[in-house]
Amino acid sequence: MTTPLDLQLGPLRSEITFTLHTQYAHKLWMGRPMIRNGEGKVTQSSIISVPNCFAMLTQIQRAASEDDPYADDYLIQFEESVINYRKEIQKTHQRYCHALRQNVAGGNFY
Question: Entry's Pfam families (predicted)?
């Protein structure tokens, strides 16, 4: 039997599950608050959590869908940053694999 709520259109909702296997990954996911010393100077800057980052990107994406030029510009800059970081990670991974192959091939495991 259908109810009036079943017939209403709206956003699709689903549940996403992540399994974080290390404490380091968990800390990155959860973020970090800003830490100040006794004088009020920032000693450690804050790191935004991944869920908060997704929430902000969702708001910016909604603004972009409503023709906000600043939101469009921000999304373009964000995409370019993601592409650049991905390239950096790939280069680092290639260097790491190359160094590992050289050390393992020579019998040097350190």
Answer: AcaB
Cα–Cα separations (whole angstroms), residue 27 to 48, 57, 89: 11, 20, 20
Q: By three-state DSSP, how is residue 55 classified?
A: helix
* pTM attached to this predicted model: 0.63
pLDDT tier at 5, thresholds 50, 70, 90: low
Give the residue from 73, 80, 74, 34 showing the smallest Cα distance to 57: 74
Q: Pick from 15, 51, 16: which is nearest to 31 by CA?
A: 51
Q: Which residues contact 17 (CB under 8 A, 6 or more apart)?
A: none
